[in-house]
Amino acid sequence: MNRRKFASKLTLATISGVLGTKLVFGNQMPRHYIPLGLQDPDPFKLFQKDSEMVLLNDKPWNMEAQAHLLNDKVTPNKFMFIRNNGQIPEKIEGKSWTLTINGESVKQKKEYSLAELKSKFKNYTYQLTLECGGNGRSEFNPPAKGNQWTIGAVSCANWTGVRLKDVLEDVGIKSDAVYIGYHAADTHLSGDSKKEPISRGVPIEKVMQEETLLAFEMNGKPIPIAHGFPLRLVCGGWPASASGKWIHTISVRNQVHDGAKMGGTSYRVPCETVAPGSKVEDANMCIIESMPVKSLITSPKSGALVKKRNTVTINGHAWAGELQVSKMECSIDFGSTWQTCHLEQPMNRLAWQHFKVAIDFPKKGYYEIWARATDENGKSQPMVLPGWNPKGYLNNACHRIAIKVV
Ligand SMILES: Nc1nc2c(c(=O)[nH]1)N[C@H]1C(S)=C(S)[C@@H](COP(=O)(O)O)O[C@H]1N2
Ligand SMILES: [Mo]
């Protein structure tokens, strides 16, 4: 039942109950009126997001940025995409939060309070790129089900926390450990408390990297609710689904983690390229690991009018999963010629890199600016949609914007 129908059937006493207080002047309230206190919350206010962010879904909450909103070197909360598979946990007590490390491959199960984690282990801060595996899904054909992300499901914030490897060393893990899996406090959309909306993980090699964090701060403040308060895993450069939010347990596994959304078509792509629309056997699907090379033009905004006499500076970011970006180019003539951009070093491994290039447009008129990044192994972004896959992951086609020189 939707909220409107639901509210029209409520008695004043029940409304008071839901509001948690007395409905003063309830008798004066128009029939079928839904008190503001019962209406759907405004997600932009609720999560402190900029009003130019784009809401893709409200159950669960999913929201993406537009390219021009991502111009900051470090993404602030207001421009950070939200991707949820279930309902955000309702009652989160930071003070009493604990993290349990268990699983077949721990020497013994251990529990830490949040305060203990923060004080017992050295704290580190890294800028880490988080991109949803489904970013760019909206371009796939045949279309792929799921949130129709365009380009805005990517962020690079400062994350502060402790190294997961330090914590696991303190717990003691067995030599047969191959994977970890996270368990989190969000709830399944069906309301079934036995089902987890998502429980993914990463191989031990990724766990042991210095940048793999159990984070409790984002951009110097406690992590916002929507992004995993009070504790989240951050595995930069991998599909962001590996970075579990609201985590209370990490299981150290002697096999590839088999939690929710680890199997079937979830965050997996055909191991070998297939024809668009093909059915692919489970056995021929591979788990996505490092994300592919990609870039985004964040300034000017697509559709901008630029004065002819000015040189236009193009700005943006480029990233390549576990790898560094080694070259960044832009074209204003539909890819006939490319100009090399100035490309900064990343702040640390797994952080995106900023690029800029000053362009002189020869005449007044319509132009497109195309951007192409190349990773340190010489792999470049494709101009058009790369390999089709059932769930529409890993679209790293070149970003293009349109401008008018007037
Ligand atoms: N507990 C939990 N963690 C989660 C998810 C979720 O639904 N529940 N979504 C994952 C996915 S698919 C993505 S892309 C990122 C999004 O992180 P963000 O919302 O902080 O941008 O969180 C990941 N971690
Ligand atoms: Mo995702």
Describe what you observe in this structure.
Its cofactor is Mo-molybdopterin. It comes from Croceitalea rosinachiae. Residues 287-405 form the Moybdenum cofactor oxidoreductase dimerisation domain. Residues 86-259 form the Oxidoreductase molybdopterin-binding domain. The chain is mainly beta and 406 residues long. It has 3 domains: 1-40, no CATH class; 94-287, Oxidoreductase, molybdopterin-binding domain (Sulfite Oxidase, Chain A, domain 2), CATH 3.90.420; 294-405, Sandwich (Immunoglobulin-like), CATH 2.60.40. It has 6 helices and 24 strands. Strand 1 and strand 2 (61-64) form a beta hairpin. The protein is globular, with a radius of gyration of 23 Å. The model has no long low-confidence stretch (mean pLDDT 94). Molybdenum atom is lined by residues 83, 132-134, 240-241. Molybdenum atom binds next to loops.
How would the blueprint of this fold be written?
Elements: H1 3-8, H2 12-19, H3 43-46, E1 54-58, E2 61-64, E3 82-83, E4 98-102, E5 110-113, H4 114-120, E6 123-131, E7 154-163, H5 164-171, E8 179-184, E9 201-203, H6 204-207, E10 213-218, E11 221-222, E12 232-234, E13 247-253, E14 268-270, E15 285-287, E16 294-299, E17 305-306, E18 312-319, E19 325-331, E20 339-340, E21 342-343, E22 353-359, E23 365-375, E24 399-405
Residues 83, 132-134, 240-241 line the site of molybdenum atom (MO).
